[in-house]
Model the fold of this input.
Amino acid sequence: MNNRETILRYLSAAGVDRFVPRAALIDMDGTLYDSMPNHATAWHTLATENGIPSTREEFFLYEGATGAYTLCRLFNRAFGRDATPEEISRLYKRKTELFAMQPAVGLMPGAKKLLDFFKAAGTKRIVVTGSGQDTVISRLTTDFAGLIEATDIITARDVKKGKPDPEPYIMGMKRAGAVPSESIVIENAPLGVTAGHRSGAFTVGVTTGPVPRVELEKAGADIVYDSMEECAEMMPGLFREMAVTTRS
Ligand code: MG
Done:
């Protein structure tokens, strides 16, 4: 499917005549930062410490969800019940410690180029993350200086329901003063893609880890790129097509 067909399919599903990309709502882990291997290692270690069998790979699939969601998922599988609020708070704190012990995470190649393009295009940038990991969140405004403002970051602490609920992305739109047909979501994880899709935004999936592109398509991505570099490379062409494609 070419850009024009992709945009027309979105417009038709959304019931709008055109898409104007005024706001880019961008996920953080596995999208702006190559942080998912560290998260997977921290989760896998935490599960093992608590006698819960798991694989390192499965945590790439839960990515984007809150810590509570992931913990309840593990608890239900291993113990047939949700984790209690006390367990969630204690174990998530431990997961944060385990994450902080990992080597420093690097910027995802292509991420800065993509944000530079959004800025040049006059598209507002909002980071929408399910993370509460201050070691990474606090780096955003320095690593992406001039591209991301401190007031334009939505974290796990700001939302009641994390991804795959659309709430974080709806909050991001409000922060940007944009409606769904003016909002483009950039996401690497199936749950995050689902959240973006359900928010009504034009949702771009980017495969940056072991999750295959078909999972992002099934989760509702309007278009999928194979890396953030490819995403940055292709975005100007997508924007040009959005400017001229109308349904009427
Ligand atoms: Mg992510």
User: Anything to note?
Assistant: The chain has a mean pLDDT of 95. The beta strands are 23-26, 124-128, 153-154, 183-187, 202-206, 223-225.
